[in-house]
Amino acid sequence: xxxxxxxxxxxxxxxxxxxxxxxxxxxxxxxxxxxxxxxxxxxxxxxxxxxxxxxxxxxxxxxxxxxxxxxxxxxxxxxxxxxxxxxxxxxxxxxxxxxxxxxxxxxxxxxxxxxxxxxxxxxxxxxxxxxxxxxxxxxxxxxxxxxxxxxxxxxxxxxxxxxxxxxxxxxxxxxxxxxxxxxxxxxxxxxxxxxxxxxxxxxxxxxxxxxxxxxxxxxxxxxxxxxxxxxxxxxxxxxxxxxxxxxxxxxxxxxxxxxxxxxxxxxxxxxxxxxxxxxxxxxxxxxxxxxxxxxxxxxxxxxxxxxxxxxxxxxxxxxxxxxxxxxxxxxxxxxxxxxxxxxxxxxx
Length: 348
Hints:
Keywords: Transferase. GO terms for molecular function: CoA-transferase activity. This is CoA transferase. By secondary structure, this protein is α/β, with parallel strands linked by helices. It has two domains: 10-194 and 312-321, Crotonobetainyl-coa:carnitine coa-transferase, domain 1 (Rossmann fold); 232-297, no CATH class. It is 37% helix and 15% strand. The chain contains 14 helices and eleven strands. Helix 1 packs across helix 7 (158-177) and helix 7 packs across helix 8.
């Protein structure tokens, strides 16, 4: 394989900030030719910083295009005629106004796949929908943090990243079908989908999810963070075999079944907390990992990156995290992000 699994696939992107650009960067990493269609001022994320922009736009092309002009619309049609897909993340009204839907482009290419990535859906209005707003609106923030404290947001853009991956999947699925069409993906729907078992418990049985200390799992016990002699340890005991191995190492007895552990949650957590307080998080990790028990000391991002140098790649002047998709027999060509208008149009 020389050009990657998506070699020959041409994707247009009208993307801003994170969700859309992240989706198309995943495709570019796999060999697709991705062209950003940018206004004269460029994607707004260019103003955030070079590293920020590079982390979402490596390996792409850039064409400056005024989509509000007749000339820009003509060039959009010409590009659409030669492309497999268009992915856009703007407000629904802007998507329609700028002719970035399948209905608007099908006369140029009836097999083009048009993906609209929005906050609440292409037909659900223009309410502002940034990542943190959607996390608050869908119940994610309410489930995060200590029960005695306020709701909390994760320290990264989980809604944007998750929706970007989902949009890329929808785009590829429709290309594989061999038919053009409109794909509609929203941040709201993706985050509600990712609350899967919480949502099912409420919809089927009326069970409302609870925010638990140390991010404890709703079903598995013990499965959460624990304070240790030094640092915190993530321990995730899902089945009885894990428990038997952990209990032997930690000097605990009883509670042999998952049902028993769930029924005696508070007692189990007290016993495990006492046991883990006798050693450091790093030491517990080194003791438990050889036994096949899922456990990890809490690390900072710099510590995690230093421990996994194989995930760091260079794209021009930038050091970035590699694609998480490893394809046997092929290595991505990590090229730097494009200069504004590098491949056509005018940046003036």
